[in-house]
Amino acid sequence: MWKALWNTLKLGVLSSVFCAFAGLLIGYTVVRLRGRWISKVLDQLSFLPYLVPSIAFGATYLSLFAKPRLFIPSLYGTFTLLVIVTMVKNLPFATRAGISGMMQLGHEIEEAGIVAGAGWSTRMRRLILPLQRSSLLSGILLPMVSGMRELSLIIILITPGTHLLTSLTFKFTDYGYYSISNALLLINIVLVLVATIGVQKLTKNDLSAGLGG
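Above: the chain sequence. Below: its structure as tokens.
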């Protein structure tokens, strides 16, 4: 159980952080290049995972990474595959937050950075990221909460070494151990709440600010 608890926490943190930064970069590209074809393509592609049922999405990645392809080794049975699948599946949430945040940020601040001689990476680190803290927070929290309680997405990708709290809950329920499964479910709920409150305290912000509440 402790390994499943650690795997759940690790999956939520890693997938949500990668997802949030990817969503912010996509939002930056979509807003700054609005009107161009690449902006429209990125906007549509980033929303595509939301339209695919979770179990079908997991099955697709299982078929893609079940065996080595080109320079990519077989990822089936690895924790890396769970992180990738969870990150991509929740990318629409982070992308919407990134686009919403970037639309509220005018070009003037970034243009001032260009005039001052700051490169793109410096502008992102010193200007964009601090000003987009609320959007980045919502881009972290939404995928984290979704990833920690996900079951249908990862159920066919789970192996004995990569069990999560949700998959263990399903397993014990299937065996008829309802008391244990209820306890695991409660632990998962508490874990999600603690992670949410912890991120909000660390960033001194809240989720409603990133969602425009």
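The chain has a mean pLDDT of 83.
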